[in-house]
User: Fold this.
Amino acid sequence: MNQSKDLKTRASDESFCSLLVGFNFIFFTCLLAFMLFLPLQAVLSGSDAPHGTDASHDEGVADASHGAAAEVHAAAGAVETITHAAGKAAYMVCSTCHGAEGEGNTALNAPALAGQQDWYLKRQLIKYKDGVRGTHPDDIYGMQMRPMAMMLTDEAKIDEVVAYIAQLPVTAPLPTLGGDVAKGAASYALCAACHGPDAEGNVLLNAPALQNLPDWYIVRQLQNYKSGVRGTHPKDIEGMQMRPMAMVLADEQAMKDIAAFINSKAGAE
Ligand code: HEC
Ligand code: HEC
Assistant:
């Protein structure tokens, strides 16, 4: 009985052993096959390599440059957002006179700023700051503006607020002085040489856009130029170019007519 049990045990032991050996055999064979397969696969795909690697390399570079471009873009976007926020913050004080959207305020004598060319806005702010504009003893309104420009401590601040103004929507000013558009059109021919046929301005001639300015402001500036309140400061080179043009205009009616014609061009490109 005992022996038979021993035999039985040995048999099961043996079969276990052979199972183990068999398993090991299969296991190691698979492992070996796998290890052989790996380099083989490398060689196989290697025949494709020049293409494959180059393509993936190019893609990598493209991805990297896309990535870099995206980053630059994102950074530029962030800078833009910051500049916009700074400009908006700086414009808060301006809005009390020039309006929330730079549309101007007749009661406060503040002209529209929206729709004006950025280089001109910047130059006027510098002129006010440096006392080239807004220091003549009869320049009542310019004197109100000057301290505001002086609050813009440096050029970067000026650029920020100007960039903010530049993106404000343009509203066509409503005529208030009842000038004659047809008569104004005739006398505007002289002005068109510098300010453009639609009073859109011309950076090359330093002439600003006039088309979105309110008529009362246009007339007041023409009077200022004519009387020498504006355009007589020794450093006001552009103002000195404009002054003789205003002096050609016979009277206030001629100024009103021109302003009416200019207003008729509001919003023209
Ligand atoms: C207290 C009211 C007031 C505030 C605040 C004010 N301005 Fe003015 N601004 C004026 C007046 C008034 C004029 C017109 C001066 C004139 O008639 O000669 C003017 C003129 C200007 C001009 C010249 C426009 C042109 O067509 O030549 C610019 C540019 C300007 N302001 C920008 C600004 C900016 C930017 C701010 C804010 C930093 C600002 N202003 C704040 C009252 C103000
Ligand atoms: C020789 C070129 C030239 C001619 C012609 C000319 N202008 Fe000007 N005008 C200028 C320049 C330059 C300035 C800007 C002055 C400055 O930057 O301070 C200006 C400024 C002005 C301004 C002030 C704008 C503002 O926002 O404050 C008004 C208004 C104006 N011109 C109207 C006229 C009218 C009306 C005529 C025709 C009778 C005319 N100009 C003819 C060159 C000219």
In short: Residues 118 and 166 are 6 Å apart (CA to CA). Residues 123, 190-191, 193-195, 205-208, 210, 213, 218, 221-222, 238-239, 241-242, 245, 249, 258 surround heme C (ligand 2) (CB under 6 Å).
